[in-house]
Amino acid sequence: MTRNTIKQGGLGTTIKQGIQMLQGKNVPNYTLIFLDPTTDKRSGEEQTVWNPYITLGRGSGSTIRYSDQYPTVSRKHAYIMIEGNRVFIEPDINATNPTLINNNSVQRKYELNPGDEIQLSHEGPRLRYINTAANRTTASMKFTQRLQQFGSQALRPYKTALTIMSILLIGLSSYFIWFSHTTNLKIDSQAGQISLQESKISEANTTSQNLRDSLIKMESLLSGVANKSSIEAVNIKNRILDLSNKINTSTPNVSTSSEASPALNSNNSDQGIAGELKQFEKSVYFIIIESVEVYHPEVNDKNGPLDLATALRFRWSGTGFMTSDGEFITARHIIEPWRFGLTCEASVSNDIEAQMKTFLNNAQLKGGNVEVTYKAISPSGDQFTFTNKNVILDNSRDRTKCNLDKEWHIKQCDADNLHTDWAKIILKNRPGKFKINREISRKLDKGTQLYGLGYSHGSQLQNFDMYEKFDNLDPLFISAKVVQQNTVNGMINISSSEIAQGSSGGPILCKTTNGWEVTGIISHGYIDGIKQLVPIWQVR
Fold first, then answer.
1. Crossing angle for the helix pair 143-150 and 11-22, to the nearest 10 degrees
2. Domain 168-185+433-538 carries which CATH code?
3. Which of helix, strand or coil describes residue 366?
4. What's the pTM value of the predicted model, to 2 decimals?
5. Per-domain residue ranges for the chain?
6. Is residue 226 predicted with pLDDT exceeding 80?
7. The domain 11-140 is classified under which CATH number: 1.10.510.10, 2.60.200.20, 3.20.20.10, 3.90.226.10?
8. Are 128 and 115 in contact (CB under 8 A)?
9. Is the pLDDT score of 227 beyond 50?
10. What beta strand segments (E) does 225-368 contain?
């Protein structure tokens, strides 16, 4: 008799139940007592299981995973599933050895009863199924315990998929920043070409005026020789006509600005600018997260800090750049994203990322500790690590939100203080190519063309191996245009079509008499396409 191959419950179902558990709700669950050790549980330890579908085996994706000391256990040996208020176990159809309940082999789905002993093969490890005690339900768990359970049960079978999803989420805020940067670069190029055309027109006008002066002199000469022979008069008139023709051919056909625009927007212009910016690419670093360790004094247990990057794949990415005087500059929301974009309802929302940020934010306010380790990687292969403890930034204007008597009040950078979205570290031993121009960032004219570089869409547009290795990094070329005069509320407002997730913290440049100079840092954007830069003069 044949049976259908068991199909694992979907990621969406697991995450949905996991979100309810993270919110402190009591979801259907049971407890397993490990009579023999797993890869992360000792003999005698217990685990409350809320995941509606778990896998037992030696495979890397197994929820309950055993080591190779149990060779009779298959990579996928059996499954335990919650259906309503009932719990079932079913052997995998491809398992080499049997699954036993109370020393009896089972061939198909079997309903578990409290006290049942499960054994994976005759020589394999044992575990006992029991009802969860009232004081150990998911609703009774502390927040950190719920995080740990979510990480071990929901994410292990799906860690590859969740990594890719987290990479996509990480870059979302940077998308807008990268977009504005590109448009500004195009404006700068066009302004330069317009200036060149105006210079050529001025030269042509000067030539035309000189020819007209010659014409006046010839007419005067003609008047003086009116009594001469008609042949001479005809010759002079012919010379006058010749001069007139020269005037017509030397005067340029100056079209209106709308007619001249297409030539200034040609791809050749952007290609030329991209070539000029090539010299800066090795000074543009891709920033990734190595660890996010948090200690919350009210919820962490004796085991110490929890690493959210490992437990929950909570990571993000961004862009940074190295200046010629050895300063590494990026956006502050890349360094401490938990200070941006949160609401008082985030801790009870269905948004896992918002919950993580709230947890980090509140941990700092309650006297706990948050230490993030970042890695910055250059297209040249140069790389270095640093932590948020090494960074110079300004969060002095952040404001406490939510009622202070609430458990999860937070501190936030408000919209009127976004000009503090900058951060830097001093690395004198790593001078880069970028020069900054503080003054020009205060007074950019509307329509000024700007250009820049950044890692739009994060890892998805780079050669990488799941945060382990990056080869041939290639920052994206950005063009942007200033859409409002000077600065508004301390920010440079631009439009751009290239700024995208992952480009936050990237440099935006303007071409001056001194060459290409940084005028702003990619910060954030709005849905309607308007993006904002932190003027470089804000960096202290």
1. 170
2. 2.40.10.10
3. coil
4. 0.59
5. 11-140, 168-185+433-538, 282-426
6. no
7. 2.60.200.20
8. yes
9. no
10. 284-295, 306-307, 317-322, 327-330
